[in-house]
Amino acid sequence: MVKTHIPGFPRIGAQRELKFALENYWHGKTSRNELVDMAKTLRMQNWNIQAESGMDFVTVNDFSLYDQVLDHSVLLGVVPQRFSDGSCDSFDNYFRMARGRAPSGSATRACEMTKWFDTNYHYLVPELAVNQQFILNPEKLLAEIAEAQQLGHQVKPVIPGPVTYLWLAKCAAEEFDKLTLLPALLDSYKGLLKLLARKNIDWVQIDEPALTLELTPKWQEAYREAYQTLSTCGTGLKLLLTTYFGALDTNLDLTAYLPVDGFHLDAVRGSDEFIRFSERLRSDQVLSVGAIDGRNIWKTDISAVAERLKRVADQRGDNFWLSTSCSLLHVPVDLQQETGFDPELYSWLAFARQKLAEITLLKQTLQGESSDQLAANLRDVTARTQSQRVHRIEVKRRVNGLMPQDGERGLPYAERAIRQQQKLQLPAFPTTTIGSFPQTTDIRSARARFRRGELDEITYTAIMQSEINDCIERQERYGLDMLVHGEPERNDMVEYFGEQLEGYTTSQLGWVQSYGSRCVKPPIIYGDILRKEAMTVSWSRYAQSLSNKPVKGMLTGPVTMLQWAFVRDDQPRSETCLQIALALRDEVVDLEQAGIAAIQIDEPAIREGLPLKQSEWEYYLQWAVYAFRVSASGVQPETQIHTHMCYAEFNDIIQAIADMDADVITIETSRSNMELLEVFTEFRYPNEIGPGVYDIHSPNTPTVEQIQALIEKAATLIPAERLWINPDCGLKTRGWDEVATSLINMVAAAKILREQR
Ligand code: GLN
Ligand code: ZN
């Protein structure tokens, strides 16, 4: 009999219960017990959902109060020195590691956070000491196992694997080889497995997603060593070595010959690799096939998948398991809560709960049972492939008709710059901002009331216009050279455009954990993208009518629009991206026609779209850059195109950034003391740059001297005539007082430098 399970379930709760419980606890509004109780309730619900959906195991230890990697660091005793000052107990110390502060204990620098592979989830980076000791602290894990067993569940705990854990960790000593810690780490794992073996458990899921990366021989060897060691510890426990987020490719043989009892493979991104993999296994080894997409929200074509799996399923018999490709952490919890989708769209979707039902339906189908559900599934997925709402012939034609020259500006940067300067007449070191200004409670409440139908369009427009008025007036007073309208009408830089484009939709409760208590609600791209009408022109035109200074138009770029959404899976991402690029291109042209002389197309997500395997980078960057260029190239050379990116590390993609050929790029650099600018110097980046001169994430306001020093530093790296002066990122999370002081100081610094020239 085929067995079923999942690598993990979302822990935030269908109504984001965990988020609110955490925040209430952190802000001292509720007691620790209330948080602990909520966590327990959520775990119980999640296990019940799995059991009721027919899973043979419930997954335990996928739950976390903040992050599963942080949990594992605590379990292994990897707690940096600065958290051992004894100023609070372990419960709050955990939150100090996560966020630098907790209801008790002193404030300390939090652990670093970074993206979990190519997802939008962020984990806390383990900090290893050169002489790191691993001291087991398995209380949380053991308690949750006991909890699930008391509820009568068949338990399969999950832990991060040792090699992936080391891979994700960092060490303060730069030259240090993390792998020297592997033997000590493995001792610790052996101890852990021995403890688990006493808990009436058959299987332990051990997550090694690093196996889907391109590993060097040294890291491949680490895998052999690790699993050789763990296989000889004689506990009788079976390990399910779990890989996801891609194909094993060059690590396929390495993985297949690791001495474990079972494997889990991603059969969505890894497509049919599981067939080849299966051939390498002994018949007594388990193969768990992740055939339902854990990274997206589309209903699975059950009959088609069953067909793909059938042969291997028959061959392996009892040792064939069914699952989702990866943990369901990356999708929203329950589609049934959504009331806003029309029935057609609704019938195409599956969130976490629905994916569990799909696993069971797939199992029944593989066993030769046909059912009404299967017929309904087939009807829904077929309808989607044929729907008028998905396919727009005019959009497809336009994408197919794109030529290389559609990504060309007509004149090279150097000539465009002369014309732009004639038109804009900007001083040296021109000052500007990244787009958004404080989103006050008044602004948010006006938007919410309009959305609920409590404000009519005329009143709402008047309120937004008065906000724009205020924003323009203030920028004039601060003395900025290039203004913005302030983005009061936008809730979110992607959702705002998603709501206006055909082919996009938004859910009501489709929240996905981003880190800790933070969640995002990605829009859903279901069909060909069409811009029915201008999206930003009336706001920009209004703003420009209020000032003699240029007001920048403000758009979100095609790659970011793609990257921060759930994307349709029935055509290549590159094609969807080009459709968005064309919609944006029309908007850019309309802005130009409306008298907007500078237009910013934000692309903060271009780097995070990089595929996990480096061999795929070139292809990705090629279409991503082209899509940006298509969006930017419909205008005259006189029109100045800006872009903005905010993340550390431009090294990997500096060539691509240059290829984007924006006239001006603004970037985040202040926290690194302009060091991130060095790569632009080395590369001889040819266009204009605005390196952020202060950190908008910090509540501290910068002084004139601090800003001046940073600009002077920047001027040693980039010729002064190509430097712009601006903050690191948008100002929407700040208050007006801080914004005023900071920008006044920024303008003062720019003026001093101008006079010195
Ligand atoms: N224009 C956007 C803003 O200022 C850019 C946000 C971002 O870089 N993430 O808010
Ligand atoms: Zn930014």
UniProtKB/TrEMBL annotation:
Pathway: Amino-acid biosynthesis; L-methionine biosynthesis via de novo pathway; L-methionine from L-homocysteine (MetE route): step 1/1. Its cofactor is Zn(2+). 5-methyltetrahydropteroyltri-L-glutamate binds at R16, E17, L18, K19, K115, R518, C519, W564, E608. L-methionine binds at I434, G435, S436, E487, D602. It catalyses: 5-methyltetrahydropteroyltri-L-glutamate + L-homocysteine = tetrahydropteroyltri-L-glutamate + L-methionine. Binds 1 zinc ion per subunit. Residues 4-315 form the Cobalamin-independent methionine synthase MetE N-terminal domain. L-homocysteine binds at I434, G435, S436, E487, D602. It comes from the Bacteria. Zn(2+) binds at H644, C646, E668, C729. Its EC number is 2.1.1.14. Keywords: Amino-acid biosynthesis, Metal-binding, Methionine biosynthesis, Methyltransferase, Repeat, Transferase, Zinc. The active site is at H697 (proton donor). GO terms for molecular function: 5-methyltetrahydropteroyltriglutamate-homocysteine S-methyltransferase activity. GO terms for biological process: methylation. Belongs to the vitamin-B12 independent methionine synthase family. This is 5-methyltetrahydropteroyltriglutamate--homocysteine methyltransferase. The gene is metE.
